[in-house]
Specification:
The structure holds two protein chains of two kinds. Chain A has 13 helices and 14 strands. By secondary structure, chain A is α/β, with parallel strands linked by helices. Chain B contains ten helices and nine strands. Chain B starts with 7 loop residues before the first strand and ends in an 11-residue tail after the last strand. Classes of the chains: A alpha/beta, B alpha/beta.
Chain lengths: 400, 237
Amino acid sequence: MHLIYSSTATRLFSDEDLADLLKKARAHNININVTGMLLYENGSFFQVIEGPPETIETLFRNIISDSRHSKVITIIHESIVKRSFSEWTMGYSRVSAKDVSEIIGLNDFFTEGHSLNQLDFNRAKKLLNAFKQGRWHARIQTESKGAQINLENIQPQVFKPVESSALISTSFQPIIDSRSLKTMAYEAIPSDLKGKLLDKHSICHYQSTSRTFNDDYCGAAISLANKLGVNCNLIFTLRSDQVSNAHTAISLMLETAKQVGVPPSSIILKINQDNLIGDAELFARMNQTFRSVGLKLAIDDFGAGRSSMNLLETYEPDYISLNEQLVTGIDTNGARQAIVRGVNQACRDLGIDVIANHVSRFSEFEWFSYEGITLFQGDLIAKPEFETLPLAVIPVLDKG
Amino acid sequence: MRKGWPDFSFAFQPIVNVHSRTIVSYEALVRGREQQTALQILQSVSDADRYHFDETLRQHAIQLASRLNIGCNINLNLLPQALDVSDSAVYSTLAMAEKQGIPNSRITLEIVESEIINNLDCFIKSINVFRSLGVNISIDDFGAGYSGLNLLASFQPDSIKIDMSLIRGIDSIGPKQAIVRGIIRTCMDLGIDILAEGVETEAEYSWCRDEGIVIYQGFYFAKPEFEMLPSAIFPGW
């Protein structure tokens, strides 16, 4: 679990004040198995703390009540695969505006007079990543390098894979990143053996004729994708018939992935929120467990039916996939444009990537591109193909 | 009063514009005469009677507000299903308003977001008739229910009320801030007014104010008062 927050100092901190604060924090953190780092710039703090969930929560409650700072804003609070700062009981750096401006995505930030206290989710992640990649490592002041701590890694439950159902196979459709000009993922779509895509209704039919569909479809699809030589992410939809048994289905999927050498971090689980209403909290908790091993989460059909902005808060997904009704004809529909702009704005703040799904016309592609959306899926890019990883066509925008 | 109905009246809570520093409206909130909450009152009415009761509430609220000499707008709640059940659901409200000398343009009908989407096309058709008569439409509890922004693709109300669950603690919760910024962005593009509901602390208010929200309802400004039109406290500059 890591928690990232920013705050504003209630008074200016001298070097001695900071040294004292760090000394106490480090001594305490060794005892409670917490690591992290602290940035201080011109009266603003930015701190990452990582450790066991209960410890982090207790520690954070104490931090909030500390009178030396105010305006404590939680930016990120989530499970993690491994610690980023495991060698630091509390690394510390005083950053300058120039340092931060060297990070892509933050270069406009401090020049506009912002402080650390105004970092949002996405920018905080960028800052964090810059640190993970080793930037300023040398400059970080730290004392107790000896305190190496192992992460409490959550392992998926191991299940024995079931033989693949012979009635269903998979079609694949690519999702492209128009900025890197690469295929970022293939979505696995259940199909019958003639290659016909199965909708929700017909899957229920298959489910009743093939009892094992729930548990083995994803595993079989991963094996197939692996045989076809997939070298990007794979997207699976958690279907309504799997929700009641999601923990088993996901565990099994990850187990198969492990066996064929596909890392969990390259699997994206897509969920349709209509299936989860009523049990959203429970699902969110389970989801945290799987995400700590690297599984990514996407919300499907965002902007349709019951999908609401507060799902972004409940699930904190990695991706949202826009609903067909929002995407189709967006280039000529002002209301849809306004909604996508609002959704996109929230997602950008939250570090969630938006996938424009069901894009079938160039004019739609163009509109999304101008709004800064770079992930696309749909017939314009490539149609789903049976047991094949189809090549994507990436449209070229007129730069004039 | 119909037999079996609880003995109700109303509390009124100010809706303020902090820019003009005026009370722009009062929301009429049903209350029991024995201090029952709105929920208790509504639950004591049978399902069969619910929509008729809903209609009656609005007429009584207007009567009371008029007796209290309301000088601004009035916000009234409407169960959207009432439109299907009774042709007079809103017309009876407007008739009562006319009798009390309150023009349609001073009436805002509040509709809870989650109740609209069940029969959206039908709802839009009937509600547009009332809009053409000058009545304002507001979406209540926005962001709390199931639909959210996408409702605005097919229906653009005059205003939305951002649900208090999003407002609570917004000054310190990053994800809520991101969501509300997204809602603000969409509503500004669509020309929909934004009201922040359930504002209780100065910190919540300051955050919303910094994001450009000027219309508020909540304990920070004024509590609802039984059979009174209370005044509001405006924050200092």
